[in-house]
Amino acid sequence: MLIDMHMHEKTFSADSYLSLEEIVAIARQKGLDGVCITDHDSMGLREAAEAYSKKTGFPIFTGIEFYSLQGDILAFGIEEYPPERIDAQDFVDMVRAQGGITISAHPFRNNRRGLEENLDIVTGLDAIEVLNGSTLPDAIKKAELYAKKLGLAMTGASDCHIPDKVGVYATWFPEEIRSVQELVEAVRAKACRPAYFQDGAYHIYGC
Questions:
Q1: SS3 for the chain, per residue?
Q2: pLDDT tens for the 207 residues of the chain, in order
Q3: Domain 2-204 falls in which CATH fold?
């Protein structure tokens, strides 16, 4: 199963030009099996996403991209999140206490919003986003090396804000994912691999 795990919809991400309808339409066209909406510091789209997922029969999971004091962190499987920026470790601990997972988003991208070498300090992360649609090859390779060094799961995602970026990267799961809880459990078990779209099809990264 292929899921784009980091996407921004325009209702709650002011820098996005994508509607939920556009995201799902393009995702289906490319061959994705599901998408994750991870708006900036908000899970406000959750109810609308759940309703649209039910209407279309297309899996849509809602998480968040939280801008901690040390950088962006994706989280899934939570009900509550801070109303303002807090320390990365405090956020990871808060998510873990709720039974959720955290993923370091684009840790070495050149916009200074990744955790970077704080990956050596922050404990309790579940995965590192290795493939990111707005990240250069050198930063992707460094993220991969850190994931292997720390023994963390690796994910892939488009981090899309415009139509052309939807689904350029995704995460492959060997089992079907039909709920946020199943997504959480799969990432926690490291039952996932980054994937990239090329020549009209998805390929597992590193294979």
A1: CEEEEEECCCCCCCCCCCCHHHHHHHHHHHCCCEEEECCECCCCCHHHHHHHHHHHCCCEEECEEEEECCEEEEEECCCCCCCCCCCHHHHHHHHHHCCCEEEECCCCCCCCCCCHHHHHCCCCCCEEEEEECCCCHHHHHHHHHHHHHHCCEEEEECCECCHHHCCCEEEECCCCCCCHHHHHHHHHCCCCEEEEEECCEEEECCC
A2: 999 999 999 999 999 999 999 999 999 999 999 999 999 999 999 999 999 999 999 999 999 999 999 999 999 999 999 999 999 999 999 999 999 999 999 999 988 899 999 999 999 999 999 999 999 999 999 999 999 999 999 999 999 999 999 999 999 999 999 999 999 999 999 999 999 999 999 999 986
A3: TIM Barrel (3.20.20)
